[in-house]
Amino acid sequence: MSEHVLPQTELEAWGTDVQVVVCETCDWRFVLPAETSLPRCPHCFGTELELLSGEVSELPYVAPPEQAVPFAVSEAQLTGGIETFAKGIPLPPKDLNPAALRARLQAIYLPRWWVDAEVAALWQAEVGFDYEVVSHQERYSDTVGGWQARKVHEGRVRWEPRAGRLRRTYENVMAPALEAEKALRAQFGDYDVTRARPYHVDMVRRAPVRLPDRVPAVAWADAEMALRRRAGDECRQAAKGDHIREYRWQPAYPKRNWTLLLLPAYTTYYLDDEQRPQPVLIHGQTGRVIGMRKASLKRAQRIALILGLMALIIFVLSSISLLAVAVAPPLLVLGGIGLLVGMVLGLSALAPLIVVWRFNRPRRRPQER
Question: What are the two backbone dihedrals, phi and then psi, of residue 27, each rounded to the nearest 5 degrees?
Fold first, then answer.
């Protein structure tokens, strides 16, 4: 057995012969069927994937997933999303076009942790109850010639201490399996995980599976924060309060059951002016597209150069016409018009550069379409 193939027990769990591959550029690791030729990295597209050179046992987590959210984007949604992404860019790079993006489309699975946790805790908090205070204010009115009183309604919160005991099981608490997941979710949106179904070998045969870089022991801190929020909400509801603050608890977790969940996505890319790949990511359930949309500075510079040369030629010919006014007086009008046209054309040469600079200047990126 090759050192690049998972140990027998793990191999059988995946349901087919698999290989672990890594991108030397972005360090993302994937599982692919063993007979699959190694493609370009579907994350950064910087280089081709390579077989893992070290021991598989040294990786954070290599076991197969238990659940996966199915792909739910139609061909029409994919095509429409890609076309919308490529539109509206002034002077886009030549490679930024729907045909190229569609041709390079690659399906992948991204991992996420699910945990079912039994919680036993003593808790304390201050629970707030909304109430309204009605007061009267008086003011002098010149219109009616006297003092007038009006009611003023003011909302307030009454805080009361509460304490109790909590014991219950929370299911399907999410925790990132990737270091980059929080930033990705903020741009990309979440998934409807209620549609998840058990893992099947056809899933790894269809798309590369990104391996987690956060094991459950590391991901637990995020899961515990989510548990704290859910427990706090339940305690507020149990106390029939409107608000909760200073929530403190002393939890124990007698049982934890971890599940690895796969989330569907598509990736593609285009080449910018420097021929560097610019990745584009597509939500595998909603079709939402995010990526860096860049206008081409090189195209703007070429157009500016052409307009500048045209302006220079017109300016030179107009100057010659003005010098020949003594011989042919009508050239005065022609030369004046030429100078004006040359000046306008010269100034317009700056327009492509300004438009591209304004579009490419730092702002909220990557852009969603």
Answer: 70, 20
